[in-house]
């Protein structure tokens, strides 16, 4: 029987560098990269203007993505998901994707301070002006209220980076 691929996913506050790290990891691992932002902007163009919109459309996307990722993993290909795993509930979703098909997983926790993240967000606003409306300190503060750092008790294989690497 062929070995399943490994599911890689990320936890980190807004601006921690999840998208940047996921792109590099996909290259390093020769893995399929799936970006939530790309899927959402393709499927729901110009429909996500608030955090509430994001939550609504992200929830619609998850059942489709879950099956797709399981199919890729089951043929032995690694998958890097640029989808946030920033709450226990979301991490359980990722864990279930892997566990249901006996695939291995790796959670990469980008453990940066609020100051580090806000600095990155300000830099990103300059580099990607189309993100200016969403990449604000107010949105960061709102979104960060929901952030839950991963814990070993969740049954996850956690690799942590503090931003000093």
UniProtKB/TrEMBL annotation:
Origin: domain of life: Bacteria
* Keyword Nucleotide-binding listed: yes
Q: Which UniProt keywords apply?
A: ATP-binding, Nucleotide-binding
Query: Which Pfam families does the record match to this protein?
Result: AAA_33
Among the GO molecular function terms of this UniProt record, one is: ATP binding
Stated name of the protein = ATP-binding protein
The record lists the organism as: Metabacillus sediminis
Q: What is the lineage of its organism?
A: Bacteria, Bacillati, Bacillota, Bacilli, Bacillales
């Amino acid at each position: 029987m062929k070995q399943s691929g490994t599911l890689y996913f990320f936890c980190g506050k807004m601006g921690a560098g999840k998208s940047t790290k996921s792109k590099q990891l996909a290259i390093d691992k020769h893995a399929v990269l799936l970006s939530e932002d790309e899927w959402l902007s393709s499927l729901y163009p110009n429909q996500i203007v608030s955090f509430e919109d994001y939550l609504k459309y992200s929830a619609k996307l998850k059942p489709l993505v879950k099956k797709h990722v399981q199919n890729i993993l089951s043929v032995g290909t690694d998958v890097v998901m640029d989808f946030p795993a920033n709450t226990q509930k979301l991490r359980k979703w990722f864990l279930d994707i892997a566990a249901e098909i006996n695939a291995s997983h790796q959670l990469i926790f980008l453990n940066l301070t609020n100051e580090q993240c806000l600095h990155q967000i300000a830099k990103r606003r300059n580099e990607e002006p189309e993100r200016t409306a969403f990449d604000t300190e107010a949105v960061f503060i709102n979104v960060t209220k929901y952030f839950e750092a991963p814990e070993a008790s969740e049954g996850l294989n956690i690799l942590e980076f503090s931003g000093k690497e």
